[in-house]
Specification:
The protein is an alpha+beta fold. The strands form two sheets. Strands 1, 4, 5, 6, 7 and 8 form a six-stranded antiparallel sheet that branches. A two-stranded antiparallel sheet has the order 2-3. Helix 3 packs parallel to helix 5. The radius of gyration is 28 Å and the shape is globular. The protein starts with 13 loop residues before the first strand and ends in a 20-residue tail after the last helix.
């Protein structure tokens, strides 16, 4: 049976020289991963290539992407993705995660940034910022719940100007609560009576 691999959008100018980046969850027994072919330190190698004379060859001045699972076969391990520049540049960008989808997104983001000519420092900064955004959004639900709880606790001191300063989803959630809150049944002094006559 053909192994199921993670789908990657590989642009022109890149070649996969090794791939066992499996789209399968680990099968664990006795504290080890059984399908270790998808969870070892050598899962994926992608290299930049160039057309020279009559054939495509590895670009010695280009980048190499390497992916592995560390430690080997360990259930609580993680994916380690490395972007290695040309041999003349010692700096390596490294990204770690246990989520296959997140790794896939970062790989494709590397392709996009490199194709646009972004330098190594900016690539590193962009990946770090996107990772922080991902982590922040993954906890957004609990943050909204906390704000709503705070609102319910201090609603007598909450006013709409404060709501506008919140993150938009929180603002709309709180305003919905405000509109759904029970209102006292009061009749204004100058409101008309049922017979359309006004109060004296």
């Amino acid at each position: 049976m053909q192994p199921k691999l993670v789908r990657l959008n590989i642009p022109s100018g890149w070649a996969i020289t090794h791939n066992s980046f499996g789209d399968e969850d680990p099968l664990i027994q006795d504290g080890r991963i059984l399908n270790q072919q998808f969870y070892n330190e050598n899962l994926l190698v992608i290299q930049s290539i160039e057309f020279k004379e009559t054939d495509w060859i590895i670009n010695q001045n280009g980048y190499t992407l390497k992916l592995g699972w560390y430690p080997h076969e360990y259930p609580n391990g993680y994916y380690r993705l490395q972007l290695l520049p040309a041999n003349s540049e010692p700096e390596v960008i490294e990204f770690q995660s246990q989520a296959r989808e997140k790794i896939r997104q970062v790989i494709e983001q590397f392709f996009d940034l490199i194709s646009r000519g972004v330098d190594l420092e900016e690539i590193k900064w962009t990946i770090e910022q996107n990772d922080k955004t991902f982590e922040k959004n993954s906890r957004l639900g609990s943050g909204i719940r906390k704000k709503i709880q705070d609102y319910n606790r201090y609603r007598n001191r909450f006013y709409y100007g404060q709501l506008y300063s919140l993150y938009p989803p929180i603002y709309y959630e709180l305003t919905n609560i405000v509109y759904r809150s029970a209102k006292e049944n009061k009749i204004a002094y100058n409101m008309p009576r049922p017979d359309n006559s006004h109060r004296a």
